[in-house]
Structure formats: structure tokens, C-alpha cells
Amino acid sequence: MKQIKETSDPSKSGFLKRLVKRATEIWEYCSDGVWTDHRNNLRVNTVKTLNLTVRTFMNGDLQMKAYALTYQTLLAIVPALALLFAIGRGFGFQNILEKQLYTYFPSQHRALEMAFKFVDSCLAQASEGIFVGVGIVFLLWTIISLLSNVEITFNQVWGVAYDRSFFRKITDYMAICIILPILMICSGGLQIFMSKTIQMLLPFDFLSPVLEFGLDFASLMFTWLFFAGAYMLIPNTKVKLKNAILAGILAGTAFQVLQWLFINGQMGVAKYNAIYGSFSFLPLMLLWMQFSWLITLAGALICCSAQNISMFSYDRQIRNISADYFRKVTLVVLTIVLKRFRDNKKPANTTEISEESLIPIRLVRLATERLIGCGMLIHVVTDGNTDDREELPLQPAMSIDHYTVAWVIEQLRTKGDKDFIPSLDKRYPNIVKQCDDVTAALKKATSSTLLVDL
Fold it and tell me: How far is residue 231's CA from residue 228's CA, in Å, rounded to a whole number?
């Protein structure tokens, strides 16, 4: 018998090792290392955008926000439909809106008829109640409450710490409640309305495919405009039009795909009618609402990242930042504000401070929020605008001679609630004493140098 010798090719083994090493390096760069790459070119920004897109759908916090908004939407669904029908009646689109809903729920005509009765009852109570206008106020309050929660969620995505004032909420939400429903009605009802009109004017069969494609594309464009308008109008910050349109195209396309899956999925749940009756579509509708909000929030995050892609730099490090390093960053931010004030320069906002210091804007915002909370910085109100506070410039809250290193560190360390646990110092006297001794030693060791002199 011939002896079979197993031989291995060293060149192939070395090639595989290099290939695995290179693939590992690319994965580490794309998953985490790209956020420490400050090169501003198409390749780096594309990798960052793809990274954010994947992380968005894997983000558990974003999914929890989608769950919360799904629950709030379910509570407000009847008033929301009442508002849509009220606007539809005003523009003569009520029949189109009803046909659109029948198209979305092809196997749930009985449930929709019941829902339409609820809507009619809600509108009747709003317009014919004992106190004229009370029903309308309640209806609008329900919608405004939902929009307020949506705004809070959008602001959290954008990292904005301040909501609109009460007056701004009323005026802005009224505009949103008029503009966005019209775009949504046009998105779904355009094809139903225009197809019949065009067929009457141009009864040519060979034009049908072209017209159908054109109407489908026009409907998709209205969906894009709906999401772009939401991303521009709802967050309490300035959103650039190009970023809102980009996010609106991505979110609107994903929403249309979800709509197609949802409509076709209605046929699949028809067999459960014997068990659930007219509510057989409810589980599928809840999933649709949840994924709709997830797509909406994902688009908001993509819009935010497209406008402030540097905001996500060092994301992992910022989430795990130590108290000592955060204090150093806070002192740097405060020193920049103080020196601009001393040199009679124009006050800077958080974006300008981030550009000057090369500190990520998220970290600058965290530092300024802490300094404002400690009473060391204040916003400079311009043109009577007190809502877009993230864009307002900052200045010292008192004379710059107060801002010594020791005083600032002491304020940052001690500002906040304390001594609220009963008898803590009596139950654990040794621990409290050791902490006080260390604090006293730190006070002696800290510098009394003015920050503006550094």
C-alpha cells in the first residue's frame, strides 16, 4: 500500500491568516473605530451612516420608545381619525379617505364600519355638545398630548434638552395637525381620485401602465414629503431641508414597503376570524404601528446623524466616560466661554464651542447642561426666542473673577440633592468621616487659579 502523506501549503495558510486578520480589522473599524476617524470624506461618512442605520434597528432604547408611542397612538386613534375625517370633510376628501382605509384593511369591513361610527360619534360630541367648543378642545388636547410625546421622543433622538413653550406648542402643533394629515391623505388618496379622473379624460388603454406608474410615484413622493415635514417641524431644533428630505425618502420608502406587507398580511389573518371575530386584525395592526414608529424614529436618527454626523463620534467612550475626565472636559468648555466673554468676542453656542475645542457636540451639550444646572452659565436670548436653546449662545452667569479652578470643581462636585437619607451619618459614621477627610484633603490640594488665566 502506498503511504499517503498529508502536506499543507504554507503560502495558503499564511494567506488565510492575513485574510482573517484583514476582515477582523475592517469589522472593528466599521463597528467602532470609524467614530474616532475625523476625516471628512465620502467613504468615512458613508461607513458612519451605514453603522448608524444598523445600530438604529438594533437599538433597544429606540424600540422601547416605539412601544410607548404605539400604546399612546392606540389611545388616541379615535380622536386622530376624527381629526383626519374633519379635515377630509373640509376638503371634500371624506370618501377618498374611507376608500383608502378599506384598501388598507381589505378583510375588515365590519371593524371599519364600527370605527367610522365611533368617529362620527366623536365628531358629533365635539360639535354638538352641551358646551359648544368643549368637545373640540378635548379632541385637540388628545392630539396635542400625542404630539407632545412625539416631540419629546424626537428631542431625545436629537439630544435636545428643552421642549417648546406652551404657546409654541399650541401654534406649531396646530400647523402640524393641518399640514401632515393633508399630505398623508394625498399620499393614499391621489391614486384613487386621479386614476378615475384621468381615465375619463384620456380613455386610452395603452396609457394605463404609464399613468399607474406616475400615480404610484406621486403617491410615494407625498409620503416622502410627509416624513420630511415631520422631521423638520416636530423636533425643537433647526433641521436642514436636505437632511430632512434624505431621511424622508428613506423612511417613506420603508413605510410604503411596510404598508404593502401589512395590506397583503390582512389576507393571511382572515382565517382567524372564527376565533377573534372582527378583531382578528388587531395583533397585526399593533405590529404595523410599532414598526411604523420604529421606521419614523430611525429616520429621525438618520436625519440627525446626517446633519451632525460628528455628534456620534466617540459614542461608546462618551457613554462610559469617567467622572474625572468629564470634569476636565467641563472645565475646558467653561474656560472657552469665559475667555470669549473677557475678550469681548461674540458669545458662542454649543456647536461653535464644539468646533473650537474639537470636543464632540454631545459631550459639549452634556457639559453645558451641567454648568447651567450649577448656575455658572446662562443662555443669551436673541430675538425673543427662548425655545431653540441648544442654538442660543452662552455667557457667564456672574463675574469671571468667581471662576477659580477650586470653586468650579467644588460647585460641580456638590451641586445637587444631598443629606436626604435619614440618619445615614449616624448609622455609618466611619464611612462618612473617611469621605469627609478625603474631601477636605482635595479642597487643600485644588488650585485657586482663575480659569481665564490658564
Answer: 5
Which candidate, 233, 230, 237, places its Cα nearest to that of 293? 230
Instruction: Give me the mean pLDDT over the 54-64 stretch.
Output: 72
For residue range 407-444, what is the model confidence (pLDDT) as tens digits?
A: 888 888 888 888 778 888 888 888 888 888 887 777 66
CA distance 85 to 98: 9
Percentage of the chain exceeding pLDDT 70: 67
CA atoms of 312 and 55, how far apart (whole Å): 12
Query: Alpha helix (H) ranges present in 202-322?
Result: 208-233, 241-268, 273-276, 282-307, 315-319
Give the integer Cα–Cα distance in Å for 285 and 182: 22
Question: Judging by beta carbons within 10 Å of its beta carbon (0-12, 13-18, 19+), is residue 64 exposed, middle or buried?
Answer: exposed
The residues near 126 (Cβ < 8 Å, ≥ 6 apart) are 82, 135, 136, 138, 139
pLDDT digits 0-9 by tens, 311-338: 677 777 888 899 889 999 999 999 999 9
Give the single-character DSSP code of 270. G
Is the pLDDT score of 378 beyond 80? Answer: yes
| Cα→Cα distances 324→141, 321, 327, 330, 451, Å | 45, 8, 5, 10, 17
Supply the DSSP symbol for 450.
B
Q: Report the candidate in 256, 228, 254 with the shortest Cα–Cα distance to residue 242.
A: 228
Please give the residue that has the higher pLDDT: either 14 or 340. Answer: 340
User: What cell numbers appear for 292 in the block?
Assistant: 411604523
CA pair distance 31, 72, nearest whole angstrom: 34
The Cα–Cα gap between 145 and 158 comes to 20
Q: Write out the three cell numbers for 240.
A: 436642514
Instruction: Give the percent of the chain with pLDDT over 90.
Output: 12
**CA–CA gap between residue 326 and residue 82 (Å, rounded):** 49
Q: Using CA atoms, how far apart are residues 284 and 139, in angstroms rounded to an integer? A: 27
What pLDDT does residue 330 have?
Answer: 94
Q: Is 174 exposed, middle or buried (0-12, 13-18, 19+ CB in 10 A)?
A: middle
**pLDDT at position 187:** 62
* Buried b or exposed e, range 352-373, using 16+ CB within 10 angstroms: bbbeebebbbbbbbbbbbbbbe
The pLDDT assigned to 264 comes to 73
C-alpha triplet 385, 386, 392: angle, nearest 5°: 85
